[in-house]
Amino acid sequence: MGIYDFNVLKADGEEISLTEYKNKVILIINSATECGFTPQYDALQDLYEKYSKENFIILDFPCNQFGNQAPGTNAEIASFCDTKFGIKFPIFSKIDVNGDNASPLYQYLKSVKGFKGFDAEHPLAALLESMLGRENPNFAKEPDIKWNFTKFLIDRNGNVVERFEPTTDLGVVEDKIRELL
Fold first, then answer.
1. Whether 63 is catalytic
2. Mean pLDDT by groups of 10 residues along the chain of 181 residues
3. Three-class SS string for 102-125?
4. Catalytic residue among 35, 58, 173, 180, which?
5. Which residues on neighbouring strands pair with residue 71, listed in sequence order?
6. Ranges of H-type helices in the chain
7. Judging by beta carbons within 10 Å of its beta carbon (0-12, 13-18, 19+), is residue 164 exposed, middle or buried?
8. CA–CA separation, 122 vs 86, rounded Å?
């Protein structure tokens, strides 16, 4: 099993195969429009513009599982991303990333790259750890997605090579993207 074995739904409901992205470096994110990490969209769009000509793409999967921070419809989310951030990379249908209804794609991603911790230098790391620890004292030992804007980096052969938590500096993410390009 690999990344190209999955089909996903575009925001308009059309099903596509991830084979459409073969030979590209892919950054897969779960996003939310009303999150403290939503401003990352600016830097993500910059990365997309900077490297898209080198066969780099970002695939955005909105998710409402963390604090109900993606409450809109697929059309409302796409409109928000376009209007507020000028997002040009693909935004897909809203999905679950954890639990019984988790997208098969995300079940796979988590099985390959589990949670390794938040960047302790990030100002929101302690808050996330405290909040998640109250809900589940064993959260750090489980591979689940912990919050919005978790990212998975996929190489040109479809291998999941890195997982970045939302607290990871996007400069670190860019360095890894450049290595793969």
1. no
2. 93 94 97 85 96 97 91 88 92 96 97 95 92 93 95 97 96 97 96
3. ECHHHHHHHHHCCCCCCCCCCCCH
4. 35
5. none
6. 40-51, 74-85, 104-112, 125-135, 170-180
7. buried
8. 26
Contacts of 111 (CB under 8 A, 6+ apart): 143
94: domain CATH number is 3.40.30.10
Report the distance separating Cα 83 and Cα 11, nearest Å.
Answer: 16
- Residue span of the structural domain in which 145 resides: 3-180
CA distance 7 to 49: 25
Cβ-based neighbour number of residue 73 at 10 Å: 12
8: helix, strand or coil: strand
pLDDT digits (tens, 9 = 90+) for 110-155: 999 999 999 999 999 999 999 999 999 999 999 999 999 999 999 9
**Count of domains observed in the chain:** 1
Taking only Cα atoms into account, the Rg of the chain, rounded to an integer number of angstroms, comes to 15
- Smallest CA-to-CA distance from 37 within 130, 171, 163, 168 is with 168
Check: CB of residue 150 under 8 Å from CB of residue 165. yes
Q: Is the pTM of this model over 0.85?
A: yes
